[in-house]
TrEMBL record:
The keyword Repeat does not apply. Belongs to the ETF alpha-subunit/FixB family. InterPro entries: DHS-like_NAD/FAD-binding_dom (IPR029035), ETF_a/b_N (IPR014730), ETF_a/FixB (IPR001308), ETF_alpha_N (IPR033947), ETF_asu_C (IPR014731), Rossmann-like_a/b/a_fold (IPR014729). Residues 3-173 form the Electron transfer flavoprotein alpha/beta-subunit N-terminal domain. It comes from Devosia albogilva. It comes from the Bacteria. It holds the Pfam family ETF. This is Electron transfer flavoprotein subunit alpha/FixB family protein. The lineage of its organism: Bacteria, Pseudomonadati, Pseudomonadota, Alphaproteobacteria, Hyphomicrobiales. The keyword Transport applies. Keywords: Electron transport, Transport.
Amino acid sequence: MSVLVLAEVDNGVLAPATARIVAGAADLGPVDVLVVGPAAAASAAAALQQVNRVFSVTAEPVADGLATLIETFAHDYAYLVAAASSVGKDVIPRIAARLDIMPVTDITRILSPERFERPIYAGNAIETVRDPQPKHLLTLRASAFRPVATGGNATVEQRDISVAAAARIIATHRTESDSPDLATAQIVAGGGVSVGSAENFKLIERLAKTLGAAVGATRAAVDAGYAPNDWQVGQTGKVIAPDLYIAVGISGALQHLAGIQGAKKIIAINTDPEAPIVKIADLALIGDLFTVVPELIAELEKRKPS
């Protein structure tokens, strides 16, 4: 059965999440990718393995317009798939209403063409959902799937489709960063409210830069103004599944733990040996973060190849 994946395009560039969504969708059948953006993003999608065709459309990426666009492709596909991101969460419900389909969202594992796993109760339980509908509308949690490799050679078809949208983008405001994408990074260094200030949070940024890691933060740290909103990890932020998560000054509230449950290894740096994050960590360093983290950075710098 055929699958259409809506590519994640960020500032004109194909987002790393797309390779992960393609990997998950490939278990369902041959994958075509719809890229709404510049030709460079379409070419990047065509270079992904397990992609058969890429449809390239130039249109403004607003939710109602994207829903209309995807609807024009819907009759040719058994599966319409997007990332469980801000875009997917905005577009997929609109398509579901138009096509009268019950979507299955936030999928972390595909068991069969009609059976999927998804987290519920803030990640404290995993629900198995059976979807017997003739057409399936799905969102996949990108962090739950390993990305497909590049080296593919899919064909790119330019489609001239005019889509009327009720809304339009007036302006975009971005946080510039040279660190890896938080949602798909293999290493993440996260800081909590115990860091104390936005100035002190630069210590977490230094640790992340030394490791080539992304920077994360708890909701409390974001609410306190120590870190920008797009660094927030947890139930109300980004859900991550890195190979290594370093939690600095984080107690481990349930809402934060819901966002890091996919982490392969967790290192906790905390003064409280009874903190929830310490109890689930693979390795705990008990001590003052302002002492431990600089020592850790210094040691890592020594071990860097010259």
